[in-house]
Amino acid sequence: MLAIEGLSCRYNKITAVKGVSLEVKEGELVTLIGANGAGKTTTLRALSGLVRDLDGRIVFEGEDITGAPPRDIIARGIAHCPEGRRVFPYMTVEENLEMGAYLRQTGNGINSDMERVYEQFPVLKERRKQAAGTLSGGEQQMLAIGRALMSRPKLILFDEPSLGLAPNIVQKTFGIISEICRQGTTVLMVEQNAYGALGMCHRSYLLESGEVVLTGTGSDMLDNPHVREAYLGG
Ligand code: ATP
């Protein structure tokens, strides 16, 4: 479904991503793990058309989307659930969800999709008239996921969904992401929580200093001595 070939990304003189190649097959849940600053977020931003200075190729469903603007990428079926959630704090829950559907040509289906999001996250229905900025961190994460689902994506990019959440909410969030994949949406997820990410994915890539240094199934990576030593506390 998605292939990244030799992707390099620069910010002025810094090369944040250096020749990354990876692929995600339809129906897979693939994670990108690595330390702070390894280039994980930059890789996702490049996929969403948010990095201008890049080399390499990004192919989605057989078409080259390298350098395409963000709205084209969303329209092709790639949604981005960003780091830090980035909900619109002064808008209500309902308005935030509507923003997720802003590229639809018509209003058809928006209400039924919103109802589906409310079924999955009943707390959002209870709070639908409340400003998003007043929600708890976990609720804001649910809203960010719901907003991404509103564009009816084929592929969702999750950036560090566990960041800043209490451990029980992290488990809940990972459970929801696994369920989204089981229901047919392909997932590429960036996580610093290597243990959680490797436990739930089909395959994973480890990034270090902007390069892919290891790839394998979640269980292979959990057993890898370097991963254990450097990312799982031995
Ligand atoms: P984190 O978990 O901290 O987000 P990451 O693996 O996602 O880490 P990136 O955010 O992609 O890493 O950053 C990779 C490198 O690019 C880092 O050295 C970072 O300082 C640099 N970088 C990221 N964004 C910018 C920017 N807007 N301008 C300049 N340098 C940047």
UniProtKB/TrEMBL annotation:
Record's protein name: ABC transporter ATP-binding protein
Family recorded in the similarity comment: Belongs to the ABC transporter superfamily.
PROSITE patterns attached to this UniProt entry: ABC_TRANSPORTER_1 (PS00211), ABC_TRANSPORTER_2 (PS50893)
Pfam families tied to this protein: ABC_tran (PF00005)
GO biological process, alphabetically ordered: L-amino acid transport
Molecular-function annotations in GO: ATP binding; ATP hydrolysis activity; branched-chain amino acid transmembrane transporter activity
SUPFAM superfamilies documented for this protein: P-loop containing nucleoside triphosphate hydrolases
Residue intervals of the ABC transporter domain: 2-234
Keywords of this entry: Amino-acid transport, ATP-binding, Nucleotide-binding, Transport
Tree of life domain: Bacteria
